[in-house]
């Protein structure tokens, strides 16, 4: 029985060198050399619609090849499949590329029957849950009986057992979307890109069960949607070495499936396949011609003296129109070109941000970005050595690490990049590449935070997967991170707040050191309760105050995640000011208090402003603090006019209390600070003890 092959020729590099014969042999490995020669002699091989009789002709990029082939020679031998997972009447194996993806129970030499022998399963009834071409590889579900296979296939098609698939396709223009096909809908999310191709995570909904099983159904849906999988030589995919780039990524739901499988390192093709689409040819690159930007004498003075790393727009500032965000520029003052280089920004009134004083660092900016990422990672070496107990911390801290507008956080098995300025968007591609070189298996998410969330019409920024690596995170799902041996839930996909502030790591350890079993601590503005979890390990009881009931539920989940009961931990979903007034009136006192308020927020009555309301709140905190008790006072106010010590001292005086201890309590070394650059500080903090 004949088979129609239809595929495209991939881009091999600077020059094409592969012959038509080699491509047909790649697409039809079952065919003998003689059979392939006969196809050309008969004019059966058509290239862009015309018969090709010269098998040694080198084919150009994207040429379309069509040919009808026969069955060829059956491949026999012992398969090298590896069992990945066992269940009730089924097994998942790692199918090698080249192993036939269907079974002939009448052929005693069938390689899939040999697979049953190797697994210790009876040949009779051993059945693939889905058929796959010989060129397919990856996790493959097989059943020990025909009825079991049909039941599993039906559960997959109906969605009772959910599956996630991973494919490599021509790079789509959008990071997420839906491809429509006859009888199917493919939801995709780009997880990694290489020039003109992309790895995509797929979820496919079928109107009815595909006739040849879910694998062939997904391939057909991709092709109909206009994005055939690489290696799918039956449906117009690029004919690459290494087989079909579609594999099962995860099974979950019914049958107690809860498993995911990363892609193999050989997954990525060794050739470009497609050129990078014009829409994605972005990111700063090395250049010998660094453009110039006129600035005022005052702006230049601030940068040269290290007083502040931003160039703010004034009447002397030149235009950045036509300049790409992140592109290097040499600053020119009233006296001519300076030795200061910046990167173009354009976020609000910020025209550019300081880059350095060396021409080479500007000219070879992509190499410089990689160097600065490496230096930032090296500075966190101690944290990486302790990653078994702490896997959530800041890796790159913007301007303080020489990468303006870019924040990078280690978040368990993933890295999350937050772009806080337009220049960061230009630097980002080189940052992603450098992070991937540091850890080839890491999954990288990116989220833009150029605009204030409050100005975004109620829509929180959404993180996108820019590099999948060897990891798997369900879109919209949660993950567990660890700090000092404790576990916490984090949500990496939506907004800027992932539910955990790693900059308070040292203060949580200090709170745990100060607390004693049976003590009662107050956690104001408690968020998701990370301080309360640390205090629980010390044996302390807590009262947790936050307006958000969702955060308080999250706090309980964090306690339970660590095996701590909820008894002794009281949650209050009220305005912190209202709770404190009531506590003071009722004569309640606490052994310790954590105060880490937002800069500004809606309250149950009046709006909260750290600048206007903090001193009065702290005075009431001192009234509720036992003599000898500890209090952590934190503040995040970039436009502060009063020092934190002065503010705390005034609040203590208002409450008639004296202070016996002061201890600085700022963020850890993974959040470095630049003198005079308060915009880059995450918070300031002080531990005090009251007499």
Automatic annotation (TrEMBL):
<dbReference type="GO" id="GO:0032259">
    <property type="term" value="P:methylation"/>
</dbReference>
<keyword id="KW-0808">Transferase</keyword>
<dbReference type="Pfam" id="PF10672">
    <property type="entry name" value="Methyltrans_SAM"/>
</dbReference>
<dbReference type="InterPro" id="IPR019614">
    <property type="entry name" value="SAM-dep_methyl-trfase"/>
</dbReference>
<keyword id="KW-0949">S-adenosyl-L-methionine</keyword>
<feature type="domain" description="S-adenosylmethionine-dependent methyltransferase">
    <location>
        <begin position="482"/>
        <end position="654"/>
    </location>
</feature>
<protein>
    <recommendedName>
        <fullName>S-adenosylmethionine-dependent methyltransferase domain-containing protein</fullName>
    </recommendedName>
</protein>
<dbReference type="GO" id="GO:0008168">
    <property type="term" value="F:methyltransferase activity"/>
</dbReference>
<keyword id="KW-0489">Methyltransferase</keyword>
<dbReference type="InterPro" id="IPR029063">
    <property type="entry name" value="SAM-dependent_MTases_sf"/>
</dbReference>
């Amino acid at each position: 029985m004949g088979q129609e092959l239809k595929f495209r020729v991939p881009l091999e590099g600077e020059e094409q060198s592969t012959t038509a014969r080699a491509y047909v042999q790649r697409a039809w490995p079952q065919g003998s050399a003689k059979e392939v020669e006969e196809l050309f002699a008969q004019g059966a091989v058509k290239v862009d619609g015309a018969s090709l009789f010269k098998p040694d002709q080198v084919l150009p990029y994207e040429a379309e090849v069509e040919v009808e082939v026969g069955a060829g020679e059956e491949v026999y031998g012992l398969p090298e499949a590896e069992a990945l997972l066992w269940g009730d009447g089924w097994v998942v194996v790692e199918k090698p590329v080249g192993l036939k993806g269907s079974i002939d129970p009448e052929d005693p030499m069938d390689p899939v029957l040999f697979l049953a022998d190797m697994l210790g399963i009876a040949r009779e009834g051993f059945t693939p849950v889905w058929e796959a071409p010989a060129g397919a590889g990856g996790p493959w579900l097989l059943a020990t009986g025909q009825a079991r296979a049909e039941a599993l296939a039906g559960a997959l098609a109906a969605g009772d057992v959910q599956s996630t698939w991973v494919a490599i396709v021509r790079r789509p223009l959008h990071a997420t979307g839906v491809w429509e096909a006859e009888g199917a809908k493919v939801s995709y999310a780009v997880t990694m890109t290489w020039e003109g191709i992309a790895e995509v995570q797929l979820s496919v909904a079928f109107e009815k069960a595909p006739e040849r099983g879910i694998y062939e159904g997904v391939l057909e849906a991709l092709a109909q949607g206009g994005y055939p999988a690489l290696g799918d030589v039956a449906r117009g995919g690029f004919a690459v070495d290494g087989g079909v780039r579609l594999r099962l990524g995860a099974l979950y739901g019914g049958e107690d499936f809860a498993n995911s499988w990363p892609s193999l390192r050989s997954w990525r093709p060794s050739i470009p396949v497609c050129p990078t689409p014009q829409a994605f040819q972005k990111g700063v690159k090395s250049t010998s011609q660094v453009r110039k930007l006129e600035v005022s004498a005052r702006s230049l003075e601030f940068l040269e003296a290290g007083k502040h790393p931003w160039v703010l727009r004034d009447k002397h500032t030149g235009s950045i129109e036509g300049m790409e965000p992140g592109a290097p520029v040499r600053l020119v003052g009233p006296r001519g070109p300076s030795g200061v280089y910046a990167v173009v920004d354009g976020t609000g009134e910020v025209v550019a941000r300081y880059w350095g004083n060396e021409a080479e660092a500007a000219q070879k900016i992509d190499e410089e970005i990689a160097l600065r990422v490496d230096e930032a990672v090296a500075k966190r070496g101690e944290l990486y050595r302790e990653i078994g107990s702490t896997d959530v911390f800041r890796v790159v801290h913007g301007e303080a690490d020489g990468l303006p507008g870019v924040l990078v956080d280690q978040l368990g098995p993933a890295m999350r990049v937050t772009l806080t300025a337009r220049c960061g968007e230009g630097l980002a591609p080189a940052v992603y590449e450098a992070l991937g070189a540091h850890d080839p298996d890491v999954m990288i998410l990116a989220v833009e935070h150029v605009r204030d969330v409050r100005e975004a019409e109620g829509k929180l920024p959404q993180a996108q997967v820019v590099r999948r690596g060897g990891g798997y995170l369900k879109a919209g799902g949660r993950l567990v991170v660890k700090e000092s041996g404790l576990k916490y839930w984090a949500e990496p996909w939506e907004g800027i707040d992932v539910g955990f502030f790693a900059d308070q790591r040292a203060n949580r350890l200090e709170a745990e050191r100060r607390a004693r079993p049976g003590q009662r601590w107050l956690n104001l503005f408690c968020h998701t309760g990370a301080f309360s979890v640390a205090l629980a390990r010390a044996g302390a009881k807590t009262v947790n105050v936050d307006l958000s009931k969702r955060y308080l539920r999250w706090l309980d989940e964090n306690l339970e995640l660590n095996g701590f009961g909820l008894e002794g931990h009281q949650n209050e979903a009220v305005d912190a000011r209202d709770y404190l007034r009531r506590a003071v009136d009722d004569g309640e006192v606490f052994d310790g208090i954590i105060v880490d308020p937002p800069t500004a927020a809606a309250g149950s009555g009046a709006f909260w402003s750290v600048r206007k309301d903090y001193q009065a709140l702290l005075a009431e905190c001192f009234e509720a603090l036992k003599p000898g008790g500890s209090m952590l006072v934190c503040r995040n106010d970039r436009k502060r006019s009063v020092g934190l010590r002065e503010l705390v001292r005034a609040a203590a005086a208002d409450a008639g209390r004296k202070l016996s201890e002061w201890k600085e309590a700022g963020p850890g070394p993974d959040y470095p600070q630049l003198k005079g650059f308060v915009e880059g500080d995450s918070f300031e903090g002080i531990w005090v003890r009251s007499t």
